[in-house]
C-alpha cells in the first residue's frame, strides 16, 4: 500500500512539457469543444425557455465561451506557425464562413418566412423592408452580428423577450466577430515573424500586460472598459471589455502553443486549477465585481487557472474521448444553431414540457442541424483547404517543398521534435444569454 501511495504521489508531482504531452489529434480538444457547446445550450435553455439565468453565482455560458477561446488560441496559433499567412487565412475562412453562411440562409429563407406567416399571414414586408431578411443577411454576412432580429418576429412572444426585451433570432453569433479579430491579429503577428521562436516573448509580454489590466479592472474602475473599438469593416464595433476578457484567454492558449516546450503539464497542478475554478465559481467569485469594479469583471487569476485546466484536460482526458470530433466535428454547428432552435421552440411553447424536456429537445434538434451542417457544408468546404490559385502553383518539375501558398516558408521546428498535424479549432464561442 505504501509503495502504491508513493507511486501515485510521484506521478502526481512529475511534470512533462506540453510538447510531449500533446500528441496531434490524439487529444481531448474535440470532446471539450462539444462539451462547451452543450454547456451553452444548457445555459441558454434557462434564459430562452424560461426567462431566467441558469445559475446566479456563475455564468455557465460565459465559462464555455472562455474555454472556446483558450482552445482556439492554442490551435489557431499552431496553425499559423505551420502555414504561410495566405494559407492560414484561407483555412480560417473555410472553417468559419461556409457554416455561418448556411446558418444565416436557413434563418432568413426558412425560419423567418415561417414565423412571419404565423404572425402576419403574409410575407409582405419581410424581404426588403427595414430590418428585413435582406438587411439581416447583409449586416451579418461576414461575422459581425450587427442586426440581431428580423422585423418583429419575436416581439412579445418569447420568455427571453419578456425578460430582456430581446427580438434576437440568433444571439450566439455575436462572438464570431471577436474570434475573427483574433484570427486577424494572429495573421499580423505571423507576417511580422513574431510567432517564431526568437520573438515569441513579445506574445508572452502582451499576455502579461493584459493580465495586469484585468487584475486592475477587478479592483478599481477600469482601464479600457468603456466603449467599443470600431466600427471595423465587416465586423462592426467590438466592445472593449469582451476584447479584454476573451482576448486574454486566446492569448493564454497562444502562449501555451508558443511555449509548449517549456510549459509543464502536471497532474497535481491541473487538479488544483480545476478545484480552484470550481470553488471560485460556487462562491460567486469567478466573476466580479470587486470593490468599485467594472460590472461583472472576471477575476483574472481564475481565468488563468481556467485556461491551464482546459489545456490540462485536453491532454489528460481518457483515450476513448480522443475520438470525439476527430473526424466529425459537430461543435461549431451546435453552437451556431442552438440559439435559433431554442428561440423557435420557446415561441412554440415547448417549454411547457418542463426544463429537462426543453433542454433535451433543444440539444437533439441542435445536434441534428449540426450534423447536417458538418456533412453538407463544413466538411465539403474543408476539402478545399489545399487549393492553390493556378497562378501560384509550382510548374511541373519546379522546386518543391518548404513553401506554401505564397511561397513563404512555414515556421521551422527544433531538431528532434515533430509538430502535430493541423487540428482546426472550432472558431466559434457563444455568449451566455442575458
TrEMBL record:
GO biological process, one term: lipopolysaccharide biosynthetic process
Membrane-spanning intervals of the chain: 34-54, 60-78, 99-117, 173-194, 201-219, 242-259, 268-286, 298-318, 330-350, 356-377
Domain of life per record: Bacteria
Keyword Methyltransferase: no
Alphabetic keyword roster: Acyltransferase, Hydrolase, Membrane, Transferase, Transmembrane, Transmembrane helix
GO CC annotations on file: membrane
Record bears the keyword Hydrolase: yes
GO molecular function, one term: hydrolase activity
InterPro entries registered for this protein in UniProt: Acyl_transf_3_dom (IPR002656), Acyltransferase_3 (IPR050879)
Signal sequence range: none
Region (Disordered): 390-434
Residue span, Acyltransferase domain: 31-374
Protein name: Peptidoglycan/LPS O-acetylase OafA/YrhL, contains acyltransferase and SGNH-hydrolase domains
Organism: Micromonospora humi
Amino acid at each position: 500500500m505504501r509503495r502504491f501511495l508513493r507511486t501515485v504521489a510521484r506521478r502526481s508531482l512529475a511534470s512533462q512539457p506540453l510538447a510531449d504531452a500533446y500528441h496531434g489529434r490524439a487529444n481531448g480538444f474535440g470532446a471539450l469543444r462539444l462539451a462547451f457547446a452543450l454547456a451553452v445550450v444548457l445555459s441558454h435553455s434557462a434564459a430562452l425557455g424560461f426567462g431566467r439565468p441558469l445559475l446566479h453565482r456563475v455564468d455557465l455560458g460565459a465559462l464555455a465561451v472562455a474555454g472556446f477561446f483558450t482552445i482556439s488560441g492554442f490551435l489557431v496559433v499552431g496553425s499559423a506557425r505551420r502555414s504561410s499567412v495566405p494559407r492560414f487565412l484561407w483555412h480560417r475562412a473555410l472553417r468559419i464562413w461556409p457554416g455561418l453562411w448556411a446558418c444565416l440562409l436557413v434563418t432568413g429563407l426558412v425560419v423567418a418566412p415561417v414565423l412571419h406567416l404565423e404572425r402576419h399571414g403574409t410575407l409582405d414586408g419581410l424581404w426588403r423592408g427595414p430590418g428585413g431578411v435582406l438587411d439581416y443577411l447583409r449586416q451579418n454576412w461576414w461575422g459581425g452580428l450587427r442586426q440581431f432580429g428580423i422585423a418583429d418576429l419575436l416581439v412579445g412572444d418569447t420568455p427571453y423577450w419578456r425578460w430582456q426585451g430581446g427580438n434576437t433570432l440568433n444571439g450566439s453569433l455575436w462572438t464570431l466577430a471577436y474570434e475573427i479579430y483574433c484570427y486577424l491579429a494572429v495573421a499580423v503577428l505571423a507576417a511580422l515573424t513574431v510567432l517564431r521562436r526568437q520573438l515569441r516573448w513579445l506574445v508572452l509580454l502582451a499576455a502579461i500586460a493584459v493580465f495586469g489590466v484585468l487584475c486592475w479592472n477587478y479592483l478599481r474602475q477600469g482601464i479600457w472598459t468603456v466603449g467599443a473599438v470600431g466600427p471595423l469593416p465587416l465586423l462592426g464595433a467590438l466592445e472593449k471589455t469582451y476584447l479584454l476578457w476573451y482576448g486574454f484567454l486566446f492569448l493564454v492558449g497562444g502562449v501555451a502553443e508558443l511555449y509548449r516546450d517549456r510549459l509543464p503539464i502536471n497532474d497535481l497542478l491541473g487538479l488544483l486549477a480545476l478545484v480552484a475554478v470550481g470553488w471560485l465559481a460556487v462562491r460567486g467569485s469567478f466573476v466580479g465585481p470587486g470593490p468599485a469594479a467594472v460590472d461583472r469583471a472576471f477575476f483574472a487569476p481564475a481565468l488563468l487557472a481556467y485556461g491551464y485546466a482546459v489545456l490540462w484536460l485536453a491532454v489528460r482526458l481518457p483515450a476513448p474521448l480522443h475520438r470525439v470530433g476527430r473526424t466529425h466535428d459537430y461543435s461549431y454547428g451546435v453552437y451556431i444553431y442552438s440559439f435559433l432552435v431554442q428561440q423557435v421552440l420557446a415561441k412554440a411553447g415547448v417549454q411547457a414540457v418542463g426544463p429537462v424536456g426543453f433542454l433535451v429537445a433543444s440539444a437533439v434538434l441542435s445536434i441534428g442541424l449540426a450534423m447536417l451542417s458538418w456533412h453538407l457544408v463544413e466538411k465539403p468546404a474543408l476539402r478545399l483547404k489545399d487549393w492553390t490559385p493556378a497562378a501560384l502553383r509550382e510548374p511541373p518539375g519546379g522546386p518543391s517543398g518548404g513553401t506554401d501558398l505564397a511561397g513563404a516558408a512555414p515556421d521551422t521546428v527544433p531538431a528532434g521534435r515533430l509538430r502535430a498535424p493541423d487540428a482546426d479549432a472550432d472558431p466559434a464561442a457563444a455568449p451566455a444569454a442575458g
